[in-house]
Amino acid sequence: MHTPSFxxxxxxxxxxxxxxxxxxxxxxxxxxxxxxxxxxxxxxxTTNQPTTDDxxxxxxxxxxxxxxxxxxxxxxxxxxxxxxxxxxxxxLNPASNVDRYVxxxxxxxxxxxxxxxxxxxxSFKLNVEVARYxxxxxxxxxxxxxxxxxxxxxxxxxxxxxxxxxSLEVISNDAYQRAYEKMQSEKMGPVLTMxxxxxxxxxxxxxxxxxxxxxxxxxxMVRVGEQKVTLEHLISMMESFKDDPNVSGxxxxxxxxxxxxxxxxxxxxxxxxxxxxxxxxxGDDVSVEMTDAxxxxxxxxxxxxxxxWTKPEDQNE
Amino acid sequence: xNSAMTRMTEQLLATALLVLALVPASxxxxxxxxYHKFNCDRASDxxxxxxxxxxxxxxKVGEETELNIIVYRSQDYRISVCHDEKILGExxxxxxxxxxxVPKEGGDPSKKEFVEVEKVLWDNTEHDMLQxxxxxxxxxxxxxxxxxxxxxxxxxxxxxxxxxxCVGILIEHMPTPGLGF
Lengths: 317, 181
Description:
The structure holds two protein chains of two kinds.
Chain A (H helix, E strand, L loop, with lengths): L6 E3 L1 H4 L12 H12 L17 E2 L6 E5 L4 H9 L22 H20 L3 H18 L7 H9 L4 H21 L3 H26 L3 H21 L6 H18 L2 E5 L15 E5 L2 H19 L7
Antiparallel strand pairs in A: 2-3, 4-5
Chain B lengths: L1 H29 L4 H5 L9 E2 L4 E6 L3 E8 L3 E9 L1 H4 L4 E11 L10 E10 L8 E6 L3 E8 L15 E12 L6
Antiparallel strand pairs in B: 1-9, 2-9, 3-8, 4-7, 4-9, 5-6, 5-8
């Protein structure tokens, strides 16, 4: 199939202030107003003001409303699993630290870390860890007010499926997805971006540790290189909240990682022919050249950041 | 006393009728978050699984909305779009646009500067307004699924609020399968 291609600058989009363009619940304040009037109450002032707590960029003057989604970690681990053998529980953030995250930032980031550990454990069938990390993640979900994503019924279901790895993966992933959707529907934009930042970093940490444990595999190195794209996506998603006091430090630290990725050579070439499945190939083939030196630099930066973000907060000075 | 009661009953009745009249619209809106789950058709190929990046949103006629997602190397995807035709019109204009971070041309070479550019990879206006696409991905990419609703033909006398309808974007994926024996 012919794939037309042209290039447009994105500068116009970048200048927009983050506001809600359209609320799916716009009619609820109206209904509330009608009911209040019917009950004899005065017409309270209802506002439909834009809020920065939604992951929508654009505005009345904007021509585009932008919504962002991140892939769930199981997509990446599913790919890594095919190339790198078994998982190891020592790579996970110790579950015993969970009660030691006390700030909103610490809890949100480590919710992302633990949720990713949960998905990793279920992807690699570390069954005892699945149960442990489900309960650990649930604790932080309770603290963040998104406990409905991790139900007791699901835990019972999970326990009864401990010997069936595929079911565990589905249950864990569903819980992750529900938490994500809950944060979106509750307009918890800054919290969601911190959770996703924690999840992205933990995914990087786990893939890098997998490489360290099983040796450098070209395909795995390619995956690490391609995380450049997911990092750019995450940073773009965080733009709207970068002035939030909890988010700003995380945003700046991710920019440092992006700077390392920016130094890699990226080659694009038109794909020749159809894909192995016979479907059209979307866009160019892209190769990100990950040298040993840049890999080492990236690994150090990820390790440093992960140590900092997962450090129990009662150890802070 | 009786006439006051009657007036109050009439007032309540009128209010109830007004609320009932508003309910369908409010339901339609509150259903938007899960619109794709119940309105978009699944792929006929059962190897496709639903991707967690699927999303629904309220879209206004004539205003572009984009869903930014990640597609991974070595995966096949199916993206299908479903929408409220009575409000948004028969077919939506859909584009798949790649967002690429590239070094800025003519920038200061000592401080490597970058800009983001868009590359249109697929445009359904060149493909009979197809509302779904299947493709293979040979590299991990940032993709924006852009949708723009033309609006229904019969829009005379409608309020601005009635130009907003639900759009669902269902994303499905599977590892790229090989052909042959």
